[in-house]
Task: inverse folding
């Protein structure tokens, strides 16, 4: 029986019938429950090691979200330094997969942290296990091995298989979905206003959306490979940027992606094939929708960012209205009582006359300017 369980026999069963004396569960609130140090092969989710490991995984996820789409879209598979770096990233994800079998999770059913390895494994298998396994599968190594075989990539069938294997490398992006769970844990720990966190989150989202759309815009060329009279038919060939460096081609694709997402649409880069048109349609639909949603959320956050200043301005407006009404009330009473007491007020008859006279002069000047302009035109 866990030392955190109650000693009262009447408390051995919870309201929903769960046994609170279960040694595989540490009952309690998520922010208060403590995992005993004597529990072996269990990683405390609130330990310093877990915090540093989460930071390490976030760095790997950022690398995956930025480099992997760019590598698939603009580079050919090769045995180079980038291949070695990707293997280190995969090794980090493999270690994270092993750590997940030792990380307890909070269960609403048991009202506590589950530290039983069997239940942890079952929960992980029902959740992120399949995504983690697919994301670490070495599709790029498989493609390089197939390409290096005698006659590899020589016929149409093998070329299609290589294209599918190349696109399968994008399965690593599924791992990025896991970053939301890590960021959710960090929200309460970061010493930053929630409104500021929200703005940063949406700006990062729209940045990654433009990056992925730019990579998809260039990837469609290698998928389709439309040829006419031995010449490539694509937006890249039309604007003669096929001979540019990968960075220059990426800059052009990013220019199109940002232009499409922000609904500017200069039209200087247009799709030339059906596949490119399909990518452009989806880019305009999802890009503009995401951009509008992000801008709307940012406007809402900015409007409520400084709540104290907003409340102070509202109070000052109410106070100014009260003073104006009180001044008008006193001046009205002074006129009714024919008092000789002079009370300065913006409603003084001389001041009102001066304001109306000034407005009349401005109106005359406007008419003279309009009349002189019409004379010059005709």
Result:
């Amino acid at each position: 029986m866990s030392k955190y369980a109650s000693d009262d026999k009447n408390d051995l069963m919870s309201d929903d019938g769960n046994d609170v004396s279960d040694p595989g569960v540490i009952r309690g609130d998520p922010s208060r429950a403590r995992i005993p140090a004597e529990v072996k092969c269990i990683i405390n989710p609130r330990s310093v090691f877990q915090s540093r490991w989460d930071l390490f995984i976030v760095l790997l996820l950022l690398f995956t979200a930025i480099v992997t789409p760019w590598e698939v879209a603009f580079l050919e598979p090769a045995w180079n330094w980038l291949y070695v770096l990707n293997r280190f990233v995969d090794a980090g994800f493999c270690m994270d997969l092993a750590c997940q079998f030792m990380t307890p999770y909070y269960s609403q059913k048991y009202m506590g942290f589950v530290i039983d390895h069997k239940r942890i494994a079952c929960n992980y298998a029902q959740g992120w296990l399949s995504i983690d396994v697919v994301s670490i599968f070495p599709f790029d190594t498989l493609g390089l091995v197939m390409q290096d075989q005698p006659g590899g990539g020589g016929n149409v069938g093998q070329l299609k298989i290589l294209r599918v294997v190349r696109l399968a490398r994008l399965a690593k992006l599924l791992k990025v979905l896991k970053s939301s769970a890590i960021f959710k844990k960090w929200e309460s720990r970061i010493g930053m206003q929630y409104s500021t966190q929200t703005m940063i989150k949406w700006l990062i989202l729209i940045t990654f959306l433009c990056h992925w759309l730019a990579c998809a815009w260039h990837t469609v060329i290698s998928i389709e490979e439309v040829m006419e009279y031995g010449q490539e038919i694509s937006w890249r060939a039309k604007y003669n940027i096929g001979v540019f460096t990968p960075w220059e081609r990426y800059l052009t694709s990013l220019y199109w992606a940002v232009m499409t997402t922000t609904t500017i649409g200069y039209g200087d880069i247009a799709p030339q094939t059906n596949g490119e048109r399909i990518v452009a349609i989806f880019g305009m639909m999802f890009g503009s929708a995401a951009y509008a949603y992000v801008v709307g959320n940012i406007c809402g956050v900015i409007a409520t960012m400084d709540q104290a200043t907003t409340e102070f301005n509202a109070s000052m407006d109410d106070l100014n209205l009260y003073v104006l009404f009180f001044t008008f009330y006193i001046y009205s009473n002074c006129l009714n009582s024919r008092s000789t007491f002079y009370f300065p007020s913006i409603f003084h008859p001389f001041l009102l006359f001066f304001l109306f006279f000034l407005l009349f002069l401005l109106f005359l000047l406007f008419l003279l300017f309009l009349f002189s302009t019409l004379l010059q035109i005709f």
Q: What stands out?
A: The first strand starts at residue 25 and ends at 27. Strands lie at 25-27, 105-107, 112-114, 227-228, 231-232. The longest helix spans residues 194-224.
